[in-house]
Design a protein that fits this description.
This protein is an alpha+beta fold. 11% of the residues lie in helices and 26% in strands. The chain has one helix and three strands, in the order βββα. A three-stranded antiparallel beta sheet has the order 1-2-3, with no helix packed on it. Strand 1 and strand 2 form a beta hairpin. The termini are far apart. The relative contact order is 0.15.
Length: 82
């Protein structure tokens, strides 16, 4: 059995249908892929802005998108780290 390529380990692949009412999240955990699926009864998922045909989201942005929170303009403050 070959190990899974490391380039996929920390990635989450997001799939939206055309009306943006269904979302699927695919990621790798120990032992196999995990698929999360969410269907909205009302409304649509926001479409993030793409650069070069690809979208890169932080974990916080992904969680906000799945939960339906839309932020029009925001800035992230720098926090102190040890």
């Amino acid at each position: 059995m070959r190990p899974f390529p490391a380039r996929f380990v920390s990635k989450v692949f997001v799939f939206l249908n055309r009306p943006r009412t269904h979302i699927k999240l695919l990621h790798w955990e120990n032992g196999g892929f995990v698929l999360y699926y969410k269907r909205l009864k009302k409304g649509t998922f926001p479409l993030p802005k793409a650069m070069d045909g690809r979208v890169s989201l932080s974990w916080a942005e992904l969680v906000l998108m799945v939960e339906g929170v839309q932020i029009q303009k925001s800035t992230q403050k720098t926090r102190f780290r040890l």
